[in-house]
Every structure is written in C-alpha cells, then in structure tokens.
Design goal:
By secondary structure, this protein is α+β, with helices and mostly antiparallel strands. The protein has 13 helices and 20 strands.
C-alpha cells in the first residue's frame, strides 16, 4: 500500500548519525560516484509483502528488485523480466516468456518457478501487499518450462499486467527477506543501519543491457524536514526524493548550486472516515464534515503555491480523472444543514487518529478548528506509523483517520467493502467490477468515472489535497526521477558531474 503505508521509524537522536554516516559528497564522478539520497521514509522492513511501507518501495523497487513489467516514472507499463506475453481470446489465460540470462544477486538463474512463487507470496493469506486483492482473480499458475509462465484467471482483468508491475520477482531459495534481499536488479543490497542509512551497490553482473550509471546509492533517513534540508545544504546528501517543507524552498530557489523540480504527484492526503460506524455511516454526515473544511486554505497553509485540490480519489494523471472539486465544496452553512439531515444537528464528538509525522499534526489541528464551526468536536489521537497500521488498517479500530495514499489508479479500493475505511455501495462495487472486466481501456475509464462520481457525491472520504511532488537536488546531479510515482525512486540513471 502507501504512502500506503508510510514508515518514519527513525529516532531523532540518530539524525546526526544519518547525516554523517557515509554521506559526505565526494568529487568522484560518473560510474565511480556514490549517490546520497535523503528521505523521511525509512522502511519498516525490507519485504513488500510484510508491511515494509513506502520506504521499502522507494529504495528497492526497480533498484534491487524487478518485476515481469516495470511501471515507469511517466506512468506507462513496459516489459522487463517478461520479454513477451500473449492473452487468450477469452481474456483468461496469460502466457509470459521470461528474458534469457537473468540471474539473481546470489548467482542463481531466474526460472519460471521463481516467478510463480513470487506471485504467490503477494496473493498469500498472510500477505500485507495492497495488490493481494487485485490479484485474487488468479486461479492457477503453471510453469511448463523454465522460461514460460502461464497464469489462468477466474475472470477477465484488464488491469492484470499493470498489477503485475507491483510484483517483485524474488529468489525462491532466499532467506529472511525482511532483513535481506536477493533480486535481479541493477543494484545489490548493501548494509541497512536502522534509523540511519540503507546502501545499494552496483550489480556489475546485471543481466540488462544498461548497468547502473553510478557505483551505488546511500539512502539517508531523517525524522523531520528541517534536518533533511540541512543535510542537502551541507552536502551530506545529493538529492531529496520528496520535499516535505515548502517553507524551506526559498533557501534553494536563489542558489545556483541546487535545482528545484516539480513533478506530477499521485499522493492524496485523505481524511478517511470509518464508514461502518455511526455517525459516519450516513452520507449526510460525511458530506457535512467535508463541506465544513476549507481544503484550499489547508493546502495553502501547508504548501503555499504548491499542490493541487482534488474532489475525489482520482489524480489528474489517471485515465479516468474528472474535476469534482465542486462536489461537497467548502460551505459552512450547507454543512450545518447536512448535519441536521444526518440526525446530528447538535453536533457530535469523534476521535481522529493522526500519524505523528508532518504534515498530519498540523492538518489535524486545522481540521479540529474548522469542524468546531459546525459544533463538531475533534479529539486528536496521535499515533506512530506502526500503531496506525495495526489499529486502523488491520483492526479497523477507528472513527476517522488521516493518511496518504500514494498509488495511482487506486479508486478501485472503494469498490471493496472490506477495505479499511468500510465504504460499501453496491452500485460502486458493480461498476468497479465491470470496469475491470471491460474489453477496452475507454470502456474501463467510462465506468470508473461513474464510480468515482458516486464516491465523491457520497463523501466516502474527504480528499484534502494532492501532494506536490518536489525533488530538490544538487545542480551537479542529473538523471533522477521527477514524479516518484507510487513511491518509486529509480537511482540507476543518476549521474553526478
């Protein structure tokens, strides 16, 4: 999942360690350079099926691990470990041909058995992967030979290849993947010093046509934006994967030593209601809360001129985007009327479970102030990322929460009544199912637009804003990704001059 689910697990006492541990920029250039990357998203573990969080995707996806297909920074899906594939006329059987000469970092050759086992890791009952439900359409996987994988689906899935781009192909003989890694990517896992750094070293035996353009990368982890920016200013790091402090951008804007890049984000900040519990089981109440919050003011207060307002779960880069910001727009008087219609005209009190890292505490305080205008009392309960995952996502023990969802094309989760926010609308579920079974992408987009409009009109959640995607880097750097789609940060094309 992403930013589901974000992991910021380092203690503040370790900040200076992160700045100084292997992070001094050196004059070495080109293929011998080490790229120092700054981030606030440290992995919880290194296994993307075990709740590793955004940080494990940022560091390992595409760098250490690869899939049958690659989701590019531009959002297109390209073949990678699968050099070719065919689909049966009924859309139920996919046959994949694997690339030749692929080896894992341990030296073992990639076989179809590894692909089968890797997909089954994601679909297993114990898997915490957000793609587990997407891939539940798989009914059988066959491996007729070492280079051929045949997957049979229980029903057509137009997004199947897209979903496979999230599946890391791992060595079936590997050990504990929560602390080690054995992938096929252009880098090997170096050393992970919890609370400080995670290093990657170039895989000189990489099977692909192009090896990494640098000698390796070190991800440095910080618990706050100030420390992250100071690290860039003092040359402890070369690039910030996603700027967290818009107020700090001024110190880079007029400095020729740095470049500020604004990409296209897919990260939505949600005020997610538990739609199973009163009073959020009533659309009028959810609509009232949404209409009482001035999202434009919130966005400006946190990000200034950056970021985008959205009226739904769908960002502008998705094929089924539609501007729905006028739905449940800010209107305090309308919100009061909606509360009365929902049977809580006198107001009510609810607990907002709030992650403890920026910008959640600030946004929670803003929401509390806004809702007080309509007689709604917000009790803020600040929790860690681990607590959020257990309490909210797993146990569904919450009334409302804030969380970022980083993935594109994730409106479909509102078609799943079992998802953590508990939104249940039979029409939406049916539309999502029809969209997945669509024969053309145009039909899929039309159906998901209908579903998206319903969830917006019923305020299934309040989509506060779409994050900006701001990468700040040393001007000596080039080749880094700008969009950070789905938390990815490919380092193999980065060059330090």
């Amino acid at each position: 999942m992403k930013r589901a689910w974000i992991a910021v697990a380092a203690a503040s006492a370790l900040l200076l360690t992160a700045c100084g541990d292997g992070g001094e920029s050196t004059p070495t250039d080109g293929a011998s350079a080490i790229i120092n990357v700054g981030s606030v998203y440290e992995p919880q573990n290194l296994d993307n099926t075990a709740g590793g969080g955004q940080g494990v995707t940022e560091a390992l996806n595409g760098n250490v691990y690869e899939g049958l297909f690659r989701l590019t920074d531009a959002g297109t899906v390209e073949p990678l470990l699968a050099t070719a594939h065919t689909v049966s006329e009924d859309g139920l059987t996919y046959t994949f041909t694997l690339a030749q000469g692929v080896t894992f970092h341990s030296g073992k050759a990639l076989t179809s058995a590894d692909v089968k086992a890797s997909i089954e890791r994601v679909t297993a009952e114990t898997s915490k992967s957000a793609r587990r439900s997407n891939l539940s359409v798989i009914s059988a996987i066959a491996t007729p030979d070492d280079r051929t994988v045949t997957v049979t689906l229980s029903k057509p899935s137009i997004s199947f290849v897209y979903h496979l781009s999230y599946v890391w192909i791992v060595n079936t003989a590997a050990g504990d993947l929560s602390t080690t890694a054995d992938g096929t990517g252009p880098y090997k896992l170096g050393e992970w010093k919890r609370g400080a750094t995670l290093s990657l070293t170039r895989n000189d035996a990489y099977w692909g046509a192009s090896k990494a353009k640098n000698a390796g990368a070190v991800y440095h982890y910080y618990t706050d934006a100030t420390a992250l920016n100071n690290a860039l200013l003092t040359n402890a790091i070369d690039v910030v994967t996603s700027e967290q402090s818009p107020d700090a951008l001024a110190q880079f804007e007029s400095n020729p030593l740095y470049t500020i890049n604004e990409g296209t984000s897919t990260t939505k900040l949600l005020l997610a209601f538990n739609d199973r519990v009163a009073p959020f089981d009533k659309p009028q109440v959810r609509k009232a809360v949404s209409a009482a919050i001035d999202n434009a003011k919130l966005l400006t207060s946190i990000w200034g001129e950056y970021g985008t307002l959205i009226g739904s779960m769908v960002p502008p880069g998705d094929p089924w985007y539609e501007d729905l910001t006028s739905v449940n727009a800010y209107d305090v008087e309308a919100a009061k009327k909606l509360l009365a219609e929902g049977g809580v005209g006198g107001g009510f009190t609810f607990t907002l479970d709030t992650p403890n890292y920026d910008p959640h505490p600030t946004a929670a305080t803003f929401i509390k102030s806004e809702l007080a205008k309509i007689g709604v009392t917000v009790e803020i309960n600040t929790i860690t990322s681990d607590e959020w995952y257990t309490k909210v996502y797993q146990q569904r023990d919450f009334q409302a929460t804030m969380q970022e969802h980083v993935n594109d094309r994730d409106v479909v989760w509102y078609g799943n009544p079992d998802f953590y926010w508990g939104y249940s609308n039979a029409t939406v579920t049916d539309l999502v199912a029809q969209a997945e079974a669509a024969k053309t992408e145009a039909d899929q987009a039309a159906l998901l637009k209908q579903a998206n409009k319903i969830i917006a009109e019923e305020a299934a959640s309040d989509w506060l804003y779409l994050y900006p995607q701001i990468v700040v880097a040393s001007s000596s750097l080039s080749g880094y990704p700008l969009n950070g789609r789905n938390s990815q940060f490919f380092v193999y094309d980065i060059v330090k001059s």
